[in-house]
Amino acid sequence: MRITMHAGLLVAVIMAATTGTSLAEQASEPQVLRDGDVAQTMRFEKMHQTRFIELFFGTKDPETGKLVAPCYNTLYSSNALPESKDTSPQALVESLDLEKLAKEHGVAKVMLNGPKLWMPDWVELKMGKERVFGGMTMGWVAQLNLPESGEIEAATWGPMQIARDSKWAWTKGTKVALLDDADGNTWILKGFQLGLDPQQTWEEYLAKGAANYKTLPAGWKFRVTTLEKDVIEIPDNNLATIMTDELFHVWDKTGPGMTNYKP
C-alpha cells in the first residue's frame, strides 16, 4: 500500500528526526522498500487506548526516484496485545537510536511518530513484514510518498486527504472526543498524542475539553460522548480525510464518504 501524505501531517506526527546521508544520495535499494510485498489483510481487536509508536524510514525509491518512507507500527504484529496495552514502553522508545537505525537499514533518516494512544477499537489493514527495532516488534503498514523538496511544513486544523487501504471502528459504549467545525462537519479523535514527555493523560484531556487549545478555530466546538452505536470508518475510494491539531492529535472526518454516520 502506497500512501500520499501531505507534508503538514508529517510534521504533526514526527517528534524526532535524524539525518544520515542525503535522501538524494540514496543509490541501492534498502530492503525495507520490499517489506510491503508480502502484505496480507489482518484484523486487530480491543485496540482502544493502546499505546504505540510508528517509525518512518525516509529514503529514495531507486525504481521511481521518488522520496518515500516505509512505515512500521508497534500496534500491528504477530505478538499478543500486552495486558498493559503498551506496545511501546517508554524506556525502549527513549533508547531508540534513530541515526543508527538509518545506517543499519541503508536509508537517509528514520522518523518517530508518537508515542500516541490509539482510539478506535478494532482495525483491519494490510500488514507486511515484521521487524524488531529497539526491542519493539513492528509490522510494515504503509509506504508514504514524501514531498520532492524534502521540506516539511507545519499545518494544523486544515483537512488533508490520505490514500488508505484499511478500515476501523469505534464501538458502542466507547467514550470518544469529537470536534464540530464551523462548516457542520464532525471530526473524531483517532490518535491521542503523548510524545516523549507526556503533558497530560487521556482523562485529563477529556476533562479540560476545549480549554486544551489556544488556537481552536472560531465556531468550532469540542464535545465528549459515549457512543450509542458503532462508528465504522471505510472511506470512499480508500481516500480518507484527516487533520492534526495544535497538540499533534490526529482526527478523522466522519459522515458521508468516510463513516457510516456522523456522531
Would you kindly provide a brief summary of this structure?
With 263 residues, the protein is mainly β.
Q: What's the helix and strand layout?
A:
Elements: E1 2-4, H1 7-13, E2 14-19, E3 40-44, E4 50-60, E5 67-73, H2 90-94, H3 98-104, E6 109-118, E7 122-127, E8 130-133, E9 136-145, E10 160-163, E11 166-170, E12 175-180, E13 186-193, H4 202-208, E14 221-226, E15 231-233, E16 239-244, E17 250-253
Parallel strand pairs: 1-9
Antiparallel strand pairs: 2-6, 3-7, 4-5, 4-6, 5-9, 6-13, 7-11, 8-9, 10-16, 11-15, 12-13, 12-14, 13-17, 16-17
Characteristic terms for this protein:
4 helices, 13-stranded mixed β-sheet, single chain, mainly beta, 263 residues, 4-stranded antiparallel β-sheet
Description:
By secondary structure, this protein is mainly beta. The protein has 2 domains: 2-145, no CATH class; 160-253, no CATH class. Helix content is 10%, strand content 40%. The protein contains 4 helices and 17 strands. Strands 1, 2, 4, 5, 6, 8, 9, 10, 12, 13, 14, 16 and 17 form a 13-stranded mixed sheet that branches. Strands 3-7-11-15 form a 4-stranded antiparallel sheet, with no helix packed on it. β4 and β5 (67-73) form a beta hairpin.
